[in-house]
Design a protein that fits this description.
327 residues; alpha+beta; two-stranded antiparallel ribbon; 11 helices; 11 strands; 16% strand
Length: 327
């Protein structure tokens, strides 16, 4: 079911040719490893080259390795950058402000994570009071499915996900970057898969006939329905059956699905980078645990070591209170 209620304008999306900008500023902690200059698409490889994916070239390009429908491999530029405006309804197909972090949260700008005292003292985001955001972000307001669940609040979601990302040993920019890489890839081409941190990530997406307005009164807009997944290896399936044998069969299957599948709009990558917002527990959530697993930032064993028997609950529990316990 389409999330959108705002049927204000039909649109078509034009795929732009690959651009090769150099990121402004110095390296970030989530930069991919640096490698020597490599051939990029349309140059291809018969098999996977002995180089990482993603990687950053000395000239500043960020590249990911893709598997073409022909079976050949190629590197494609996917640099995360503050680019020209992106707005589907207005026909603007730039990359958008992919590196922008809200100046309302200095700690997020400085460290990639929120300081809880800043979240506690905040009363609004981009001029919208939290109570107003709660109202328009719940199901049936700006969106059929909502940006948070009906029993959640924006402050609770921001705080709980910030604690979750901290527990993962990651930052919000580190989790936004793979989603931006994938979106920047999709703007250019549709390969069979992309190879990311050793994982074969499958994806598909389609533009909708409408656009989704942002709940934060910013320029972020959504027009895409994107599915992302990777298959569990036989080793991971065996680990699931053994480590989570206490779950019934249906819950184990749901755990595997929630770990390995994402359904998102492109706006969530901007939300994560700018606000540390992954959306609440709706059908469109980019759960930090799932993002870390799909894109090879954390293994199944590492997630089980971090969250133990609570892993399934961490993927399903709504953020109904603002002071969730620390782990």
């Amino acid at each position: 079911m389409n999330r959108h209620l705002l049927l204000t304008v039909a649109m078509s999306v034009v795929f732009s040719a690959a651009s090769q900008p150099v990121r402004a500023g110095g390296p970030r902690q989530d930069d991919p490893p640096t490698s020597g200059e490599v051939k990029v698409y349309p140059q291809t490889f018969e098999s996977s080259p002995d180089k990482p994916s993603p990687l950053r070239t000395p000239s500043g390009e960020e590249l990911v390795l893709v598997e073409l429908t022909s079976g050949k491999m190629a590197y494609v530029p996917v640099t995360v950058v503050n680019g020209d405006p992106y707005s589907g309804p207005c026909g603007l197909d730039g990359k958008g402000m992919q590196l922008r972090v809200s100046d309302e949260f200095p700690s997020l700008q400085r460290t990639g994570l929120h300081a809880e005292d800043e979240l506690d003292s905040a009363t609004e985001i981009t001029g919208y009071p939290f109570d107003v955001i709660d109202c328009i972000a719940r199901p049936g307001a700006f969106s059929y499915d909502g940006f948070i669940a009906g029993d959640e609040t924006i402050r609770a979601v921001l705080k709980a996900d910030n604690r979750l990302v901290r527990a993962l040993g990651l930052t919000h920019p580190q989790l936004a970057t793979p989603l931006f890489h994938l979106w920047n890839l999709m703007r250019q081409m549709r390969p069979a898969a992309t190879i990311y941190n050793g994982q074969r990530v499958l994806f598909s997406g389609k533009p909708t006939k409408c656009f989704q307005e942002s709940v934060f009164r910013d320029e972020i807009q959504g027009t895409w329905d994107i599915s992302i997944r990777r298959e569990l290896s036989s080793k991971e399936q065996a680990f699931l059956a053994q480590r989570y044998a206490h779950l019934d069969q249906r819950s184990r299957a749901d755990l595997a699905l929630r770990l390995s599948h994402l359904r998102i709009g492109e706006m969530v990558a901007f939300y994560i980078m700018r606000y540390g917002f992954y959306e609440g527990h709706t059908a469109w959530r980019a759960d930090p645990i799932a993002v870390s697993f799909v894109f090879g930032l954390r293994s199944f064993e590492e997630l089980a070591g971090l969250f133990g028997d609570d892993l399934y609950e961490r993927l399903t529990r709504h953020y109904t209170i603002e002071a969730t316990p620390e782990r």
